[in-house]
Amino acid sequence: MVKQILAKPIQLADQVTKAADEASSFKQECAELKSKTEKLAGLLRQAARASSDLYERPTRRIIDDTEQVLDKALSLVLKCRGNGFMKRVFIIIPAAAFRKMSSQLENSIGNVSWLLRVSASADDRDDEYLGLPPIAANEPILCLIWEQIAILYTGSLDHRSDAATSLVSLARDNDRYGKLIIEEGGVGPLLKLVKEGKMEGQENAAKAIGLLGRDLESVEHMIRAGVCTVFAKILKEGPMKVQAVTAWAVSELAANYPKCQDLFAQHNIIRLLVSHLAFETIQEHSKYAIASNKATSIHAVVMASSNNSNVNNVKNVIDEDHQNPIPHPLGNQTPNQMHNVVTNTMAMKGATKLPQKPSSNHARSNSQGNAKLIHQVYHHQQQLNGSISGANIKGRELEDTATKAYMKAMAARALCYLAKGNSSVCRSITESRALLCFAVLLEKGTGEVQLNSAMALMEITAVAEQDTDLRRSAFKPNSHACKLVVDQLFLIIEKADSELLIPCIKAIGNLARTFRATETRMISPLVKLLDEREAEVSKEAAIALTKFACTNNYLHLDHSKAIISAGGAKHLIQLVYFGEQIVQHSALLLLCYIALHVPDSEELAQAGVLTVLEWASKQSNMTQDETVDTLLHEAKSRLELYQSRGFFLLPGCFKWRESGFSASPVTTEAPAKVVKESKKNDEGVVVNKFKPKEPYIGRCLLNTKITGDDAPGETWHMVFSTEGEVPYREGQSIGVIPDGVDKNGKPHKLRLYSIASSALGDFGDSRTVSLCVKRLVYTNEKGELVKGVCSNFLCDMKPGAEVKITGPIGKEMLMPKDPDATIIMLATGTGIAPFRSFLWKMFFERHEDYKFNGLAWLFLGVPTSSSLLYKEEFEKMKETYPDNFRLDFAVSREQTNEKGEKMYIQTRMAEYAKELWELLKKDNTFVYMCGLKGMEKGIDDIMVSLAAADGIDWIEYKRELKKSEQWNVEVY
Where is the signal peptide (predicted)? Predict the structure, then answer.
């Protein structure tokens, strides 16, 4: 293939040389071109002879470029062959053309020379720096990648290891570089290095593979290149350090492309990873030792190089290893006890015959000479492989403690991502002795080993929660492995001071349906965690307890009573009232369940749970979820039935008595509440992420005055950096806490400001937020000049200064979902801020999931023309989208209506009163009002008479518009 690519440029070079000899004009210049072309032709022929060694990707690009240069050179030289006078007159060749062509030929010579050097074999290549070819002028990083991949193809093992290190650095630094490495064919030689390189090279290559597998397409490419086979081979036979990095790479690929989970399982990688977990973790790990097909284990080398007596001696040594196992991490358990544990755990897989306990005669046959033989064979193997092979137990035992721990940590991490959401993989894991390993490692492992083991258990139990068969087989209450796992999870939750806490809470919650009615020990420590200072812990504890108390749990009644007995009600009430938003929802859901299941509880009545639920039902942010809203209604009904409608709590005692109602069971259910779907784009909206006690510290990037010098007051537009940490939506607000203290010596309170930028920010990178702030300065009744604290703080802010930000808050002013809606925006002064964010999203930005096709109509009221904010932006939108955007200004001190009245915003609207009234009759018209409070009354005055003409009460009609989220007001 490469020879075919080179054929045409070689032919063109010969034609250029021949035409240069025949030139009748510009002979000197043609001779110079001929000289360079001959040199280039020589390099091309050299490349053709070495075509089998050339790295194809740069070859194609360089040869294509060279072919174009030679084609142009041929055209230029052919113009110099004409002899006729007229031909010379009409063919004008500037001298610069020869200089340019000479330069291009020099570049082609440099490119082909670089190609030959970079494709040279390890024996022929010098160690000097190859430099960059001229073709790399516009993209030097590409040629650096070519060079490293070429070394992977042809370099020595040491050079290939260095090249893999360079590719690791490139892939880690930039996602685009990783894509280039894959596109330029780097995966194949990296996998080859993983299989055949020295230990350091294998580590670097495996690390590069893990870093490159960052997305679906990249991992699919690696799967096609055979990464599963290579990784399976390494996990079976490679050095332990390489195996650890390979396990990490498996976890990366599985995390970024879950579809490869089954492919890895088909290549036996699950069993291999579990075997690494089991090594020196459970006593019978040798039963599951990985068999090697190659003569790389100590025993295999001895078999190949020793006589029969030596073979027997080695066998005796190995038998002695079986009879003198390593100490068990759990301490006092006997071999027979662990034998029973493993046997029961493997029951679903099918019991296999355990190896017979070696006789004492084998142990007595060991001798010092045999040990020496083992030592010699081990060192022979280490010289062959460059490291201790992880494929045999004796080799693995000699690895250092840190390497063993890292191997276990990465094996657990890989199993975690392989198990995530995959029932078949989880079944394979649980049918092995992995659960036993996780239980031991949670107790005895180091930090990363423990964390990854907890994460793996969390993912496995999450799948088991949804898969009934898996849950019943792997987590049976009488299973020894399950008991060990639950015991360790319980101890971690009970201590409540570990970074393992959250995954362990989730794992216990996932297993909620596996516990018997009598086993309530998990409830109390989880209830205590509801009072945890960290909101994330309280949230997860509430979610876990909800899985115990929810209706889907057969024992929900028993568990609900246990939660109440442990004091859960008082903690939940505190969380619903005062907890952070991430906790409130979970706490309310759990409170609803226990109120629904145990409505006659004295503790719930005393704690005032009914009052809490009634309060929560009036909070819009708590009832947006359909499940919570429905459950809240049912729980309230049940509590009211027992506490208000049929029974009363006697003062001084805790017994119920009937009063005026039949004792027969009540069967009439409360009418189901109709769940109303919001018309606004409120899905996934974040509120109160940052609170006054822990604000986000932003930085001022821009602060500029946007009103004229003669305007009555200054208004400033400012941009703050958020680094993407303040996830706001169009129509929301943020709080700003000014520096300093008030007259009482306390920190200033926050002030709220409507956000003036779209969710992407003014710079389009979702890393900034903008405000529109008017400087407040006035004279009080005493004649003193008063300056607004926060407005002046913000307007005086210099770029680079820090600012304390809270929020985002608010859902009232969110945009409607309907892209075909009619949106009428009414603003005075800085009330324009939320509408600027609306309009930027509608007309200045491009979104895959949103394209505005409706009508946006903006009314902006200001005192003077110099006070018109963002005028140029809005006029540009109107010019570009005349059918979708209407713009009307009301300048009160400069404009009047036909009656000579000042042009306020309601005055301007009166000119379009009938048109506006017809729009308000439509279901997809939304009115947004932001600014001075008096504006709303003026608008009411306009609409009353128009509505009355149609027989409609405007005030009642406006109330209905508010209920349907079509009338939205934010005034001050």
Answer: none
